[in-house]
Protein backbone atom coordinates (compact mmCIF):
# COMPACT_ATOMS: atom_id res chain seq x y z
CA UNK A 1 0.00 0.00 0.00
CA UNK A 2 0.93 3.65 -0.33
CA UNK A 3 0.76 5.24 3.11
CA UNK A 4 1.25 8.88 4.08
CA UNK A 5 1.69 9.91 7.70
CA UNK A 6 1.81 13.18 9.61
CA UNK A 7 3.93 13.52 12.73
CA UNK A 8 7.44 13.30 11.28
CA UNK A 9 9.60 10.99 13.42
CA UNK A 10 7.83 11.69 16.69
CA UNK A 11 7.58 9.29 19.61
CA UNK A 12 4.67 7.37 18.12
CA UNK A 13 5.75 7.24 14.48
CA UNK A 14 9.27 6.07 15.19
CA UNK A 15 7.81 2.99 16.88
CA UNK A 16 5.55 1.78 14.06
CA UNK A 17 7.14 3.11 10.85
CA UNK A 18 9.84 0.40 10.73
CA UNK A 19 7.13 -2.28 10.80
CA UNK A 20 5.16 -0.68 7.95
CA UNK A 21 8.31 -0.37 5.87
CA UNK A 22 9.35 -3.95 6.68
CA UNK A 23 5.93 -5.07 5.43
CA UNK A 24 6.83 -3.62 2.04
CA UNK A 25 4.56 -0.57 2.08
CA UNK A 26 5.46 2.66 0.27
CA UNK A 27 5.56 5.16 3.13
CA UNK A 28 5.74 8.96 2.90
CA UNK A 29 6.46 10.88 6.10
CA UNK A 30 5.37 14.51 6.28
CA UNK A 31 7.70 16.75 8.26
CA UNK A 32 8.04 20.48 8.75
CA UNK A 33 11.81 20.25 9.13
CA UNK A 34 14.40 19.69 6.40
CA UNK A 35 16.66 18.40 9.17
CA UNK A 36 14.55 15.23 9.29
CA UNK A 37 15.03 14.32 5.63
CA UNK A 38 18.13 12.15 6.12
CA UNK A 39 16.65 10.25 9.07
CA UNK A 40 13.40 9.59 7.22
CA UNK A 41 15.26 8.28 4.18
CA UNK A 42 17.45 6.12 6.42
CA UNK A 43 14.29 4.35 7.60
CA UNK A 44 13.36 3.59 4.01
CA UNK A 45 10.54 6.13 3.80
CA UNK A 46 10.06 9.15 1.52
CA UNK A 47 10.12 12.59 3.19
CA UNK A 48 7.67 15.35 2.24
CA UNK A 49 8.62 18.72 3.73
CA UNK A 50 5.87 21.25 4.29
CA UNK A 51 3.30 22.68 6.67
CA UNK A 52 0.12 21.01 7.90
CA UNK A 53 -1.49 24.45 7.52
CA UNK A 54 -0.96 24.25 3.73
CA UNK A 55 -3.95 22.45 2.21
CA UNK A 56 -2.46 22.24 -1.28
CA UNK A 57 0.74 20.70 0.06
CA UNK A 58 -1.22 18.16 2.10
CA UNK A 59 -3.48 17.24 -0.81
CA UNK A 60 -0.46 16.69 -3.03
CA UNK A 61 1.26 14.59 -0.36
CA UNK A 62 -1.91 12.53 0.19
CA UNK A 63 -2.58 11.97 -3.53
CA UNK A 64 -2.55 8.30 -4.48
CA UNK A 65 -2.38 7.11 -0.88
CA UNK A 66 -4.38 4.08 0.20
CA UNK A 67 -4.42 5.38 3.77
CA UNK A 68 -3.30 8.51 5.62
CA UNK A 69 -2.45 8.93 9.30
CA UNK A 70 -3.36 12.32 10.76
CA UNK A 71 -2.81 14.17 14.02
CA UNK A 72 -3.24 17.65 15.45
CA UNK A 73 0.42 18.62 15.75
CA UNK A 74 2.91 21.44 15.65
CA UNK A 75 1.32 23.45 18.48
CA UNK A 76 3.61 25.18 20.99
CA UNK A 77 1.22 25.64 23.89
CA UNK A 78 3.45 28.07 25.77
CA UNK A 79 3.86 30.38 22.76
CA UNK A 80 0.50 32.03 23.37
CA UNK A 81 -1.23 30.03 20.64
CA UNK A 82 -4.97 29.49 21.03
CA UNK A 83 -5.17 25.71 20.69
CA UNK A 84 -8.91 25.78 20.11
CA UNK A 85 -8.59 27.92 17.00
CA UNK A 86 -5.54 26.00 15.78
CA UNK A 87 -7.44 22.72 16.17
CA UNK A 88 -10.33 24.14 14.13
CA UNK A 89 -7.99 25.36 11.39
CA UNK A 90 -6.08 22.08 11.14
CA UNK A 91 -9.28 20.02 11.17
CA UNK A 92 -10.70 21.91 8.21
CA UNK A 93 -7.35 21.64 6.41
CA UNK A 94 -7.28 17.87 6.87
CA UNK A 95 -10.84 17.50 5.67
CA UNK A 96 -10.14 19.59 2.57
CA UNK A 97 -6.91 17.74 1.80
CA UNK A 98 -8.57 14.32 2.08
CA UNK A 99 -11.36 15.49 -0.23
CA UNK A 100 -8.96 16.93 -2.80
CA UNK A 101 -6.71 13.87 -2.76
CA UNK A 102 -9.48 11.27 -2.91
CA UNK A 103 -8.07 9.22 -0.02
CA UNK A 104 -10.55 6.59 1.19
CA UNK A 105 -8.98 5.46 4.47
CA UNK A 106 -8.03 7.75 7.37
CA UNK A 107 -6.49 6.92 10.75
CA UNK A 108 -6.67 9.97 13.02
CA UNK A 109 -4.83 10.36 16.33
CA UNK A 110 -7.41 11.92 18.63
CA UNK A 111 -7.76 11.71 22.41
CA UNK A 112 -9.88 10.53 25.28
CA UNK A 113 -12.35 13.34 25.95
CA UNK A 114 -12.92 14.12 22.28
CA UNK A 115 -16.53 13.01 22.76
CA UNK A 116 -17.00 14.84 26.08
CA UNK A 117 -17.91 18.57 26.02
CA UNK A 118 -16.86 18.81 29.68
CA UNK A 119 -13.32 17.51 29.05
CA UNK A 120 -11.72 20.91 28.61
CA UNK A 121 -8.72 21.07 26.28
CA UNK A 122 -9.23 17.43 25.25
CA UNK A 123 -12.58 18.29 23.70
CA UNK A 124 -10.70 20.33 21.08
CA UNK A 125 -9.98 17.01 19.36
CA UNK A 126 -13.65 16.72 18.47
CA UNK A 127 -13.14 19.32 15.72
CA UNK A 128 -11.00 16.88 13.73
CA UNK A 129 -13.27 13.94 14.51
CA UNK A 130 -16.38 15.79 13.34
CA UNK A 131 -14.71 17.20 10.23
CA UNK A 132 -13.40 13.81 9.14
CA UNK A 133 -16.60 11.97 10.06
CA UNK A 134 -18.51 14.28 7.71
CA UNK A 135 -16.61 12.87 4.72
CA UNK A 136 -18.82 10.52 2.72
CA UNK A 137 -17.49 7.20 1.45
CA UNK A 138 -14.30 7.56 3.51
CA UNK A 139 -13.38 5.08 6.24
CA UNK A 140 -12.23 6.94 9.36
CA UNK A 141 -10.99 5.49 12.64
CA UNK A 142 -10.01 7.73 15.56
CA UNK A 143 -7.35 6.60 18.02
CA UNK A 144 -8.21 7.93 21.49
CA UNK A 145 -5.33 7.51 23.95
CA UNK A 146 -5.52 8.63 27.57
CA UNK A 147 -2.90 10.92 29.17
CA UNK A 148 0.69 10.39 28.08
CA UNK A 149 3.21 9.19 30.67
CA UNK A 150 5.55 11.87 29.31
CA UNK A 151 3.25 14.53 30.80
CA UNK A 152 4.66 13.49 34.17
CA UNK A 153 8.02 15.01 33.21
CA UNK A 154 6.39 18.38 33.95
CA UNK A 155 6.88 17.51 37.64
CA UNK A 156 10.65 17.10 37.26
CA UNK A 157 11.61 20.61 38.37
CA UNK A 158 9.41 20.68 41.49
CA UNK A 159 10.66 17.22 42.43
CA UNK A 160 14.26 18.38 42.19
CA UNK A 161 13.75 21.63 44.10
CA UNK A 162 10.94 20.79 46.55
CA UNK A 163 10.61 16.99 46.41
CA UNK A 164 6.94 17.63 45.72
CA UNK A 165 4.44 16.89 42.96
CA UNK A 166 1.84 19.63 42.59
CA UNK A 167 -1.41 18.52 40.96
CA UNK A 168 -5.05 19.67 40.87
CA UNK A 169 -6.18 16.02 40.89
CA UNK A 170 -6.64 14.21 44.22
CA UNK A 171 -3.92 11.73 45.10
CA UNK A 172 -6.37 8.79 45.25
CA UNK A 173 -8.14 9.40 41.91
CA UNK A 174 -7.31 6.73 39.30
CA UNK A 175 -6.08 8.07 35.98
CA UNK A 176 -5.39 6.39 32.68
CA UNK A 177 -1.83 6.61 31.35
CA UNK A 178 -0.39 5.62 28.01
CA UNK A 179 2.96 5.04 26.32
CA UNK A 180 3.66 5.95 22.68
CA UNK A 181 4.81 2.35 22.28
CA UNK A 182 1.29 1.10 22.93
CA UNK A 183 -0.26 3.79 20.72
CA UNK A 184 2.13 2.73 17.97
CA UNK A 185 0.94 -0.87 18.21
CA UNK A 186 -2.65 0.24 17.62
CA UNK A 187 -1.69 2.73 14.90
CA UNK A 188 0.22 0.03 13.03
CA UNK A 189 -2.74 -2.35 13.16
CA UNK A 190 -5.29 0.26 12.05
CA UNK A 191 -3.12 1.67 9.27
CA UNK A 192 -2.49 -1.85 7.99
CA UNK A 193 -6.20 -2.73 8.11
CA UNK A 194 -8.44 0.33 8.45
CA UNK A 195 -11.97 -0.71 9.51
CA UNK A 196 -14.94 0.23 7.37
CA UNK A 197 -17.15 3.15 8.34
CA UNK A 198 -16.54 5.59 11.19
CA UNK A 199 -15.19 4.29 14.50
CA UNK A 200 -12.93 4.98 17.48
CA UNK A 201 -10.43 2.96 19.51
CA UNK A 202 -9.41 3.92 23.05
CA UNK A 203 -5.96 3.04 24.40
CA UNK A 204 -4.74 2.68 28.00
CA UNK A 205 -1.34 1.38 29.07
CA UNK A 206 -2.12 1.38 32.79
CA UNK A 207 -4.36 2.82 35.51
CA UNK A 208 -2.67 4.61 38.40
CA UNK A 209 -3.49 7.02 41.20
CA UNK A 210 -1.14 9.68 42.51
CA UNK A 211 -0.28 7.30 45.34
CA UNK A 212 0.59 4.59 42.83
CA UNK A 213 2.93 7.03 41.09
CA UNK A 214 4.57 8.05 44.38
CA UNK A 215 5.14 4.37 45.22
CA UNK A 216 6.60 3.67 41.77
CA UNK A 217 8.98 6.61 42.17
CA UNK A 218 9.98 5.45 45.67
CA UNK A 219 10.87 2.03 44.29
CA UNK A 220 13.32 3.83 42.04
CA UNK A 221 14.90 5.95 44.75
CA UNK A 222 12.80 9.11 44.43
CA UNK A 223 10.98 10.07 47.62
CA UNK A 224 8.29 12.66 46.98
CA UNK A 225 5.28 14.36 48.52
CA UNK A 226 2.01 15.10 46.73
CA UNK A 227 0.31 18.46 47.15
CA UNK A 228 -3.07 19.19 45.61
CA UNK A 229 -3.54 22.67 44.16
CA UNK A 230 -6.66 24.33 42.79
CA UNK A 231 -7.44 24.31 39.08
CA UNK A 232 -7.58 28.10 39.29
CA UNK A 233 -3.98 28.20 40.52
CA UNK A 234 -2.99 25.89 37.67
CA UNK A 235 -4.59 28.16 35.09
CA UNK A 236 -2.95 31.28 36.53
CA UNK A 237 0.48 29.64 36.55
CA UNK A 238 0.05 28.59 32.92
CA UNK A 239 -0.91 32.12 31.88
CA UNK A 240 2.15 33.52 33.66
CA UNK A 241 4.49 31.35 31.57
CA UNK A 242 2.90 32.29 28.27
CA UNK A 243 -0.14 30.10 27.67
CA UNK A 244 -3.09 31.68 25.87
CA UNK A 245 -5.93 32.41 28.30
CA UNK A 246 -8.35 30.12 26.44
CA UNK A 247 -5.80 27.30 26.43
CA UNK A 248 -4.97 27.68 30.14
CA UNK A 249 -8.64 27.74 31.12
CA UNK A 250 -9.31 24.68 28.97
CA UNK A 251 -6.50 22.79 30.72
CA UNK A 252 -8.06 23.76 34.04
CA UNK A 253 -11.42 22.39 32.92
CA UNK A 254 -9.76 19.14 31.83
CA UNK A 255 -8.43 18.68 35.35
CA UNK A 256 -11.87 19.40 36.83
CA UNK A 257 -13.24 16.63 34.62
CA UNK A 258 -10.48 14.19 35.58
CA UNK A 259 -11.36 14.63 39.26
CA UNK A 260 -14.56 12.67 38.53
CA UNK A 261 -12.88 9.60 37.05
CA UNK A 262 -16.02 7.49 36.75
CA UNK A 263 -17.69 10.09 34.55
CA UNK A 264 -14.54 11.08 32.66
CA UNK A 265 -13.77 7.52 31.51
CA UNK A 266 -17.36 6.31 31.07
CA UNK A 267 -17.28 6.08 27.27
CA UNK A 268 -13.85 4.44 27.32
CA UNK A 269 -14.87 1.75 29.79
CA UNK A 270 -17.99 1.01 27.74
CA UNK A 271 -15.80 -0.14 24.84
CA UNK A 272 -13.33 -2.90 24.11
CA UNK A 273 -10.40 -0.56 24.68
CA UNK A 274 -6.81 -1.60 24.01
CA UNK A 275 -4.88 -2.32 27.21
CA UNK A 276 -1.18 -1.90 26.48
CA UNK A 277 1.95 -3.44 27.92
CA UNK A 278 3.92 -0.46 29.30
CA UNK A 279 2.95 -0.16 32.96
CA UNK A 280 3.45 2.69 35.41
CA UNK A 281 6.35 0.80 37.03
CA UNK A 282 8.06 0.63 33.63
CA UNK A 283 7.75 4.35 33.07
CA UNK A 284 8.94 5.10 36.61
CA UNK A 285 12.28 3.50 35.71
CA UNK A 286 12.57 5.76 32.65
CA UNK A 287 11.58 8.79 34.70
CA UNK A 288 14.09 7.97 37.45
CA UNK A 289 16.90 7.58 34.93
CA UNK A 290 16.22 11.06 33.54
CA UNK A 291 15.83 12.46 37.06
CA UNK A 292 19.14 11.07 38.29
CA UNK A 293 21.02 12.35 35.24
CA UNK A 294 19.54 15.83 35.66
CA UNK A 295 20.27 16.30 39.37
Automatic annotation (TrEMBL):
<dbReference type="InterPro" id="IPR008030">
    <property type="entry name" value="NmrA-like"/>
</dbReference>
<dbReference type="InterPro" id="IPR051604">
    <property type="entry name" value="Ergot_Alk_Oxidoreductase"/>
</dbReference>
<dbReference type="Pfam" id="PF05368">
    <property type="entry name" value="NmrA"/>
</dbReference>
<protein>
    <submittedName>
        <fullName>NAD(P)H-binding protein</fullName>
    </submittedName>
</protein>
<feature type="domain" description="NmrA-like">
    <location>
        <begin position="2"/>
        <end position="267"/>
    </location>
</feature>
<dbReference type="InterPro" id="IPR036291">
    <property type="entry name" value="NAD(P)-bd_dom_sf"/>
</dbReference>
Amino acid sequence: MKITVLGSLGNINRNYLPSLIADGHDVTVITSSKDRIADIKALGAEPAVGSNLDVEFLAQAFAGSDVVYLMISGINYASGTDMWQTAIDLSENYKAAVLKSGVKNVVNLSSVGADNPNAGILYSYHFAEEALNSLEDVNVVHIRPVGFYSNLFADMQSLKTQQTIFSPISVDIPQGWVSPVDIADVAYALISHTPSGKSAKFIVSDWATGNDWLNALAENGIEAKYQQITVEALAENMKKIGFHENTANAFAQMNRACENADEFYVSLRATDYHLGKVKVEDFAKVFADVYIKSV
